[in-house]
Write a structure and sequence with these properties.
The complex is a heterodimer of chains A (295) and B (286). Chain A is α/β, with parallel strands linked by helices. Chain A has helices at residues 2-9, 15-28, 40-51, 73-86, 108-121, 132-136, 140-153, 170-173, 176-188, 207-224, 239-252, 270-283; strands at residues 29-32, 65-69, 93-98, 125-129, 163-167, 193-195, 229-231, 265-267. Classes of the chains: A alpha/beta (295), B alpha/beta (286).
Chain lengths: 295, 286
């Protein structure tokens, strides 16, 4: 895994492809704020950034989704309403973390209530955490049942489902075997996305772990012709790193996965670096952090 | 029995570490008689970009350190240079020729320059700052603050003294520096970076890149995250073009000068890379 990830990382990227890659990265970002200090104001300003990441260049694409805590969903919905109405189909999704994020230490009832509340508030996507304690103790069936139950809680009154992303927290599962097992478990239980980490545990997303998860979704696609998405989150801060992930996605799962419905970056500061690199490409000189908006 | 020669590998000093250029390039350095001395790393524009990032990160800590602390650190640089005096004299002599005495006096001049500026650390703000008279119950105070990241192009000769004379005044007030020493004689400057690495200067505060200023300076001049450009030693470059490019992002600039090196020790050099902040504070409640 590590060797393959290292080999993919040495790929040289030509300038013209880099311009395309930077725009693609923006389109794949789940712009995230998951702090205890979050306020409605911060969510609103982040929503503005999600819509128009670089006010100096109106050609900048918008991000894929805004990822917030469950209680912030109404503010996100409110801030994105006008934009999303005007975009029919090409909307910015609202993702909410649920199920006692980030630890997942709560009873199943609480987790389901947490999820249902976020969905009722208007979340399009739910990022749930698995019970790592249960998984590591070998109680795999319990984890499976929990994911299935949360999936049920994602159902809306009209019968449709909010997209379910299952966070494995690879940093706590630690071995490739565990992550491999957990990925299959999540997919079989009905996950629409498998996500590496909460961003609260070090190490967060790593390229080798993401590569492994990409192999699982590729194998699942070969077996069932169904596509499951992958979302690395946490620790991806530079455009250079992000481009390495894009290469890994294209080379492992296939280019079909380079789409917001199948691949996302969970990130907050990554967007700023991508904007700096974009400005550099456009103006021909290096830009600085003073020239992008402050979160 | 003769010993095996242990030639020194000269690298870039970037973010507190000694690294080769990311480009893998190097160039040959000769002594005054044209005899090969060493291969040194040749910095690329990406190395310069990394150096600016490192300097930006280091800025908060260095400018936030107390004036006394910065003074002590600068003095410490002088102490350690004194300890390696012989090495510096030898390197300067090999690079520039012109007799050991001249080399020794240059090294002494460089060491004394650190001491001279170290003394200013906790004084320049008193001299340049002011309590301004205003008509109202307010204190109105002006204080100089460091500009930010300073890119420095040092002159050809005297290779060591010129570099020290440019970076010391920028450092006193809390700026961080990306410096290009003399392209032809970079070795004393690269040895200076070893002194900096071991003398309590936080990583990233000074970054020393050997290579071609003519190639890299335009990138630093146009770089939006560089706040000031010291072109004192850039008389061989197209410095008018560099100034125009730097004006795009409103950089502070010192253009090339012809003044004698001794005249470079001046309060003006410190103040060139500071910004004046003025504060109003009510005094009615006192």
């Amino acid at each position: 895994m590590e060797q393959r990830a290292a080999a993919l990382s040495t790929r040289s990227i030509k300038t013209s492809s880099k311009v395309l890659a930077l725009d693609k990265i923006i389109e794949l970002i789940d712009l995230t704020t998951l702090e205890g200090a979050d306020t409605p104001g911060k969510v609103r300003s982040l929503a503005t950034k999600a819509i128009q990441p670089d006010p100096s260049d109106r050609g900048t694409p918008h991000v894929a989704a805004l990822c917030v805590y469950g209680d912030m969903v109404p503010y996100a919905v409110d801030a994105l309403r006008d934009f999303n109405r005007s975009r029919n189909g090409d909307a910015i999704q609202i993702a909410a973390v649920a199920t006692a994020f980030p630890s997942g230490r709560a009873s199943l009832e609480v987790k389901c209530a947490d999820t249902a509340e976020a969905v009722a508030a208007g979340a399009d996507e739910i990022d749930m955490v698995i019970d790592r304690g249960a998984f590591l103790s070998g109680r795999h069936e319990e984890v499976f049942e929990q994911i299935r139950t949360v999936k049920e809680a994602c159902q809306r009154p009209d019968g449709s489902y909010a997209h379910l992303k299952v966070i494995l927290e690879t940093g706590e599962l630690s071995t490739y075997d565990n992550v491999h097992k957990a990925s299959w478990l999540a997919i079989l239980a009905g996950a629409d996305f498998i996500k590496t980490s909460t961003g609260k545990v070090v190490p967060a997303a790593t390229l080798p772990m993401t590569l492994l998860m990409l192999e699982v979704v590729r194998d699942w696609y070969r077996l069932t012709s169904k596509r499951v998405g992958v979302k690395p989150a946490g620790g991806i801060r530079s455009s250079k790193d992000a481009i390495r992930y894009l290469v890994a996605v294209a080379e492992t799962a296939g280019e079909a996965w380079l789409h917001p419905s199948l691949f996302r970056f969970g990130a907050s500061s990554l967007l700023d670096d991508v904007l700096l690199q974009r400005q550099r490409m456009k103006t021909g000189h290096y830009s600085g952090p003073d020239y992008v908006t402050i979160d | 029995m003769s010993r095996l020669m242990i030639p020194k590998t000269y690298k870039l000093y970037l973010n507190g570490a000694f690294v080769r250029s990311e480009s893998g390039r190097s160039y040959k350095v000769s002594d005054d008689n044209g005899i090969f001395v060493a291969n040194v790393a040749m910095a690329s524009r990406k190395d310069a970009r990394e150096a600016v990032v490192a300097a930006r990160v280091a800025f908060a800590g260095w400018s936030g350190a107390s004036a006394y602390n910065r003074g002590q650190v600068l003095y410490r640089i002088a102490e350690l240079m004194e300890g390696r005096r012989e090495q510096f004299v030898e390197e300067v002599y090999r690079a520039e020729g012109g007799g050991k005495e001249a080399a020794a006096s240059q090294v002494e001049g460089a060491i004394d320059t650190w001491v001279w500026y170290a003394g200013w650390a906790d004084k320049y703000a008193q001299v340049a700052g002011n309590a301004n008279p205003v008509s109202g119950p307010y204190f109105n105070l002006s204080v100089p603050e460091p500009t930010g990241v300073v890119a420095t192009i040092a002159g050809r000769r005297p290779c060591l003294l010129s570099l020290v004379s440019l970076i010391a005044p920028a450092l006193v007030s809390g700026n961080t520096v990306v410096a290009f020493p003399s392209q032809a004689h970079p070795l004393p400057a690269l040895s200076l970076s070893e002194v900096l690495a071991t003398s309590d200067v936080p990583k990233g505060v000074v970054n020393i890149l050997s290579g071609s200023p003519a190639e890299i300076a335009p990138w630093l001049a146009s770089h939006a995250d560089v706040n000031a450009l010291d072109l004192t030693g850039a008389e061989d470059l197209n410095w008018i073009e560099l100034q125009m490019s730097a004006a795009e992002t409103l950089k502070r600039i010192i253009p090339p000068e012809t003044a004698a090196w001794a005249a470079w020790r001046s309060l003006d050099r410190i103040l060139a890379f500071t910004e004046i902040k003025t504060i109003w504070h009510t005094k009615s409640v006192i």
